[in-house]
Write a structure and sequence with these properties.
heterodimer, A: globular, B: alpha/beta, Double Stranded RNA Binding Domain, Arc Repressor Mutant, subunit A, 6 strands
Chain lengths: ~160, ~210
């Protein structure tokens, strides 16, 4: 029995949103979210029952994020964007409690950013991430750990994230 | 490490964003004809009701006691898993139900989709629509009405499996002795509906003792 698609949206909408926001600026993240679930709805009846739905969704989201980047800014591709700053999240009008965190995730070097996004925002296993990034599980684990270390270092510099005494 | 899928908690801002995105998704999915079953939940004097429709019409009305999640799973299995919650597509149905519960509507003008029923049951369920507001029939009378006077039991099961209660008024069918018989939404709901339509209805008291 396949779960009603509405439940898929309820269960994983947030994971996909966080992945999209980590990979793209706010406007494109919303477009990518929408494209992801539309494509997923279309393909859903053919999805094997034993499939990991979250991994499937994050894979679609990643492809949609690449589409979004190609569509609006052909010179940047997430696989090549290894060292440059993230593609946005500088909009001051966003009233997100975690804006700072998204911003920092977005500033991570390319591979770290992707692994952190898939792992901590998308909730995927390192094995699944390795499959998506065509690398080894160990490499994904390393990139994830480096990304978190980097995030800690950056966030610790900022008063906003200091622990309350 | 924990390799299970991680279920994060949404912030208020994220919930708001997801709500807006959900609305857009439903709209776009409709435009691409990717929604096979749309549903919404409405409040009523007999508890919250799940309303589900296909392109053909209203396909299911479910009482809270049936378990809305379970019913959605059944619809996913029997019709299609392309099911989305849609706040607007069932506006007309919700409005007519409101009017019915307010006592201002005595019959429903809605397309219905009885694809969940077998042919015989469909025949019985459509016949239910001919029992007028405030009136009741016995299972035996209903069997006679469809020209199968011996099929009283089968008529009873057809009423018991009516996928569109209230709109197709199986609550207006009672036992020959006037006692309530059964009801998917519970006997209390059946009594409430009969009393709404006819304040003099006293059938429930007779059956309790």
């Amino acid at each position: 029995m396949q779960a009603p698609f509405e439940r898929i949206v309820q269960d994983y909408g947030l994971n996909v949103l966080r992945v999209c926001r980590a990979l793209l600026d706010e406007h494109r993240a919303q477009d990518a979210w929408s494209e992801t679930f539309l494509a997923a709805l279309k393909a859903y009846p053919q999805l094997p029952e034993e499939a990991n739905v979250l991994a499937w969704l994050v894979r679609i989201a990643r492809n949609k994020a690449i589409d979004e980047l190609r569509k609006h800014k052909p010179e940047i591709l997430i696989d090549q964007d290894m060292d440059g700053p993230g593609s946005g999240m500088n909009r001051p009008d966003l009233q997100l409690e975690n804006l700072q965190l998204w911003h920092e995730v977005n500033q991570l070097p390319g591979k770290q950013r992707q692994v952190v996004a898939y792992r901590y925002l998308g909730g995927m296993s390192y094995a699944q991430i390795a499959e998506i990034l065509s690398g080894s599980e160990a490499a994904a684990r390393r990139a994830g750990a480096d990304g978190i270390k980097n995030l800690r270092a950056r966030l610790a510099d900022q008063e906003l994230w200091r622990e309350q005494p | 490490m924990n390799e299970k899928n991680y279920r994060p908690q949404a912030t208020a801002a994220e919930m708001q964003a997801l709500d807006a995105l959900h609305g857009q998704l439903v709209e776009r999915a409709r435009a691409f004809e990717l929604v096979d079953v749309a549903y919404r939940v409405v409040d009523s004097p007999v508890g919250s009701l799940l309303l589900a429709s296909t392109d053909a019409g209203l396909v299911r009305v479910a009482f809270e006691s049936e378990g809305h999640d379970r019913i959605l799973e059944l619809l996913s299995e029997k019709l299609s898993p392309r099911i989305l919650r849609d706040k607007t597509s069932l506006d007309g149905t919700a409005r007519q139900l409101d009017e019915y519960f307010a006592g201002t509507r005595h019959s429903f003008e809605l397309p219905v989709d009885l694809q969940l029923s077998t042919e015989f049951r469909r025949q019985v369920q459509l016949e239910l629509g001919h029992i007028e507001y405030g009136q009741t029939r016995s299972y035996a009378q209903l069997a006679q009405q469809i020209g199968k006077p011996k099929a009283v039991r089968a008529v009873g099961s057809a009423c018991a499996t009516n996928p569109i209660p209230i709109v197709l008024p199986c609550h207006r069918v009672l036992r020959t002795d006037g006692s309530l018989g059964g009801y998917l939404g519970g006997l209390q709901a059946k009594t409430e509906l009969l009393k709404l339509e006819n304040p003099d209805f006293a059938g429930s008291a007779a059956t309790l003792f």
